[in-house]
Design a protein that fits this description.
With 176 residues, the protein is α+β, with helices and mostly antiparallel strands. It has helices spanning 26-89, 95-104, 118-126, 161-175, and strands at 112-116, 135-139, 148-152, 155-159. α1 (26-89) runs antiparallel to α4.
Length: 176
């Protein structure tokens, strides 16, 4: 057997191997074409199955990822809740700042009534009340420490720790 060498000017871009002999009978050629069609159909089915598996894998991954983000958000909020509750228990907050912020956000600056926990009310009465002129403070056992509720002629504003933490949790869940 002799070796044959072929020199090409350009690189080969596509090679296709065919087991096709023009000397074969038309029956054999038809049979081969039928076999090729069957193999092509089987290959197409295999590709579809692989694509389906890939799609299911992607869907499962996205579901797991979303669940993990939700769990991380819940855990983050719970950690923040514990830290805040510890700070509140230790009295490590300034009720004056909380009240000043809620008054600043009030829809009206007249006829304001601020509901406070009785302990916080005592603290604010002992503090300098400048800037709180025209504000009536009332004790409210339904209001927790470091929280308050403001009533104005145009509506009610609440600054409640649990509600703020829930808002943060929803924002974190959506961000993921």
């Amino acid at each position: 057997m002799a070796n044959i060498a072929i020199k090409l000017d350009k690189p080969i871009k596509l090679v296709k191997v065919c087991d096709f002999n023009p000397c074969q009978s038309s029956e054999q050629q038809t049979e081969m074409l039928g076999d090729l069609k069957i193999q092509k159909a089987m290959f197409s089915q295999a590709c579809q199955a692989i694509q389906s598996i890939a799609d299911k894998f992607k869907e499962t991954f996205e579901t797991i990822f979303a669940q993990r983000n939700e769990e991380i958000a819940k855990l983050s909020v719970e950690i923040a809740r514990k830290i805040l509750m510890r700070s509140v228990e230790d009295g490590d907050y300034k009720i004056e700042n909380i009240v000043a912020e809620i008054i600043k956000n009030a829809p009206s600056q007249h006829d304001l009534v601020v509901h406070l926990n009785p302990k916080d009310l005592a603290d604010i009465q002992n503090a300098n009340q400048e800037g709180f002129s025209g504000v009536t403070f009332v004790p409210d056992n339904n209001i927790g420490l470091a929280e308050c509720m403001l009533e104005s002629p145009k509506g009610i504003i609440k600054t409640l720790i649990d509600e703020h933490l829930e808002q943060i949790g929803r924002a974190l869940s959506k961000a993921g």
